[in-house]
Amino acid sequence: MFEHEILDVAVGIVAGVISFLYAEKFLPRRFTNRRRAILIWAIVYAVEQITVSNLTTLFSPYERFIIIFPQILTLFVLQRIFFVTDKAREFFILASFIVGWDILRFIASPLSHIIFSVWSPIWIEIFNSLIENYPDSTDEIIFEMEILNRVVMFIVLTFCRAVQFGILILYLRIIAKNFARRDYEINFRDSLFLIFPCVTILLIDVTLRLTAFSVQNGAMFLIYEREPVTILLLPLVSLLLLGVIISVVILFQNLIRYKDEEQKRLLLENRAVEVHHEIEELQNIYADIRGLRHDLRNHIANIFSCVKGNAELENYLRGMTATVEKLDFHDKTGNPITDIILHQVRQRAVKNFVRFDANFQYAKNFDVYDVAIILNNALENALEACEKVSGDKFISVHSYWRGNLYFIEVENNFDGELEKNFATTKADKNLHGLGLQNIRRCAKKYLGDVDIKVDGKIFKLTIMLYQSKNFE
């Protein structure tokens, strides 16, 4: 029957295309001509499927599961030729695709069995009616009814294959969407975690195939004919088994995210310790500078009293006084650490022609270490944003109280383009988003939160901290 051969060729080509597109989600291609690669892949896969399918007719139904092994070998060779080698991903692609394609036969086969069981009595009824009404045209009726039956069989088998492909595509898309990103290196343990369920389900699939046939009085029967309830159970079991693989992939993705979060947390803790030491050093340096400034002022004042009338020395001492005054900071926030942070930001702003306005007062109710982290990260992000702006640039920072709530607001202009999820532009991608994470972490410590508003090309960051007795 040539229509079955046409259907087999079409199924092989479509399955080949799907397997290529699926592998493409995980592995980079070796060749730039994608269409040619898909065409060659699909043809080779279809030829293998048709050839092996014809050969399996030489075996009993119990032995026909061996078709899996040539399929695995063919896909493995094709992956090695058309895609960059990555053994862990290759094995998972092979296992998950073959399991999905083969286990879904237990959906297509029962579906076709149900449809044919409905069509068969209808066909017999039509055939008998025509024979009774037109007894002189028996040969023509038999010929036409055979053609009708073949057409219906072709349509039904095509429909069942379409259902199988539809579920397969959905299953593969869910896996590809939830699988680890390409830059994640899968180790041996990860590979076992992913492949073990696939191999287990593949063995279950083989077992189901072996039990799908039974012999009674020398005749071969399908399991649905012997146990009708299996016509519903087999499709349900097939979908549940595919759900197991999807669940494993989602679980694996969550484990990767947890691992990434744990690495970020450790990085944050290490940076926090470093910043804490830096703050302590800055406090000591600031105390030394204040003492030095005080002593120098006294010395200069004493020298002034001794050189009155000497204009040259007086001018020299006035110059020294001006130099000493530079040791003092423009911003008086109430804490040396926040003074230093604003002083450094102001100097960078001047160099980059950024208007910097600060009306900030340190709140003693909160640990200066946490306030310094908030202030430093917020202003650092604002400076980076202003560096991309041409023309007028500004940064403003101020703080205020509303009852027991302490607010820090940082406002700046930017070029109007925000990275997705405020992604970092730093060269070190390990620092991705750590600035905002640091700010949120400190705010949460004081039962507070962070609010971000964007109005045109104006970016406004508001940090709220709550004054509680626990933090006084």
Description:
The protein is α+β, with helices and mostly antiparallel strands and 472 residues long. It has two domains: 2-267, no CATH class; 331-472, Heat Shock Protein 90 (2-Layer Sandwich), CATH 3.30.565. It is 67% helix and 10% strand. It contains 13 helices and seven strands. Strands 3-4-5-7-6 form a five-stranded mixed β-sheet, covered by helices on one side. A two-stranded antiparallel sheet has the order 1-2. A hairpin with a 2-residue loop joins strand 4 and strand 5. The chain starts with a helix and ends in a 6-residue tail after the last strand. The relative contact order is 0.06. The model is unreliable at 420-432 (pLDDT under 50).
User: Helical residue percent?
Assistant: 55-70%
Domain unit count:
2
Strand/helix succession: HHHHHHHEEHHHHEHEEHEE
Structural class: alpha+beta
Unreliable segments (pLDDT under 50, ≥5 consecutive)? 420-432
The helix tally amounts to 13
Number of strands: 7
Question: In angstroms, what is the radius of gyration?
Answer: 38 Å
